[in-house]
Amino acid sequence: PPPDDAPTDVPPADVPPMIEVPTAVETAAPATVRAGQAITVTCTLRDAGGNALTAPAGVSPTITFAPAMAVREEGGRTVAVRAGEVTAACAFPSLSLTDATPARITITPGDPARVTTTLDRSAIAAGETATATCAVADAYGNAITGVAATLRLDPMGMGATVTGLAARIERAGMYTAACVV
C-alpha cells in the first residue's frame, strides 16, 4: 500500500457551469442606406467580459430609431425614408438593458422619382428667353442634387430653341416646358 502522505487521486467535485449574465447590449447597423432600402439592425447581448451571448428564450430586443420619422415600418421591415442621419438603439426591456451608444446611420436620397419645373417667368414676348430650374426628388420627397436635367419644350421647333435650361421662343403661341431627368 502507498504511504500515508502519498497523494491520492481524488476526482474533482462537480462544478456547476458558470451562468453567463448579460450586462450590456450592442447595436450594429449599416453606416449608409438609401431611402427606400431596409435597415437591418443587429442587437448583441454582451457579458461583463465583452463576450457575445445568446438571448434567453422568449427575450427579444426592441429597436428605437431617432428621429422616428426617418424610418417607416413596411411589411415587417424598417425602411429608410428621410435623408439625413438617424440613430438606432437596441434595448432588452425585460433585462433592463439599453445600448447607450446607438448606431449612426446616414440615409441618402433614393432614385429620382419626381421632377418639378419652375420657370423664371410664365409669359414672355416673342424673341425672349425663359430659364427653367429643375428640382429633383426621390419617391419619399428627399431632394436630389447634382442630377443632370434637360429642358423639353412642346411644341419644339417652329422658332423655339432650347439651350441648356433656357428656351428662346421666336413665335407667339402656347408652349409647355418640362425638365427631364
Task: Give a topology summary.
Layout: E1 24-28, E2 32-34, E3 42-46, E4 52-53, E5 62-66, E6 71-74, E7 77-80, E8 84-92, E9 97-98, E10 103-108, E11 114-119, E12 129-137, E13 143-144, E14 150-154, E15 160-163, E16 166-169, E17 176-180
Parallel strand pairs: 2-10
Antiparallel strand pairs: 1-3, 3-4, 5-8, 6-7, 8-9, 8-10, 11-12, 12-13, 12-16, 14-17, 15-16
Gross morphology is rod-shaped
The helix fraction, in percent, is under 10%
Portion of residues in beta strands equals 35-45%
End-to-end gap: 98 Å
Give the overall average pLDDT.
90
Q: Mind describing the biggest β-sheet?
A: 5 strands, mixed
Q: Rg from C-alpha positions? A: 32 Å
The number of helical segments is 0
Structural class: mainly beta
Which keywords apply here?
mainly beta, five-stranded antiparallel sheet, rod-shaped
Q: Can you characterise this structure?
A:
This protein is mainly β and 181 residues long. The protein is 0% helix and 44% strand. The chain is built from no helices and 17 strands. The chain has strands at 24-28, 32-34, 42-46, 52-53, 62-66, 71-74, 77-80, 84-92, 97-98, 103-108, 114-119, 129-137, 143-144, 150-154, 160-163, 166-169, 176-180. The strands form 5 sheets. Strands 2, 5, 8, 9 and 10 form a 5-stranded mixed beta sheet that branches. Strands 11, 12, 13, 15 and 16 form a 5-stranded antiparallel beta sheet that branches. A hairpin with a 5-residue loop joins strand 12 (129-137) and strand 13 (143-144). The radius of gyration is 32 Å and the shape is rod-shaped. The termini are far apart. The model has no long low-confidence stretch (mean pLDDT 90).
